[in-house]
Design goal:
28% of the residues lie in helices and 40% in strands. By secondary structure, it is of the alpha+beta class. Belongs to the ATPase epsilon chain family.
Amino acid sequence: MAMTFHLDVVTAEQQLFSGMVEEVIAPGAMGDLGIMPRHSQLISKLRAGELQYKTSDGMASLFVSGGVLEVQPHVVTVLADTGMRAEDLDEAAAREAMKQATDALQGKDPEDLDYEAIQTELESAKAQIEMLHRIGKLRGH
């Protein structure tokens, strides 16, 4: 039997996952983080991207738009800004969000723009599309 640890993935609205896992690959702010059982403690900001985890049933994925990852020796907690299950991702909605963010950045009144929020939306939409394409390739689409 493989060594495991507990993973909790939550947003302000919902719990996306809670259970025992063998491994987590998280989209850290400075690059992907691979977490195995008994990993040393750490806290990291997350960027928008795919959070992968391995259970006894195999690999699974969630999308997180950013947040914080806390690693303890036997528990990993992800406090995601927003997130969704891979099967709930919608490429058309992500492309529309990307278009709206791009249009907003090209807007006429730059004083009223919240560039950081718009950039975050743009990065989140791009990450969703990238994840959809990766998953599609894995499923043979």
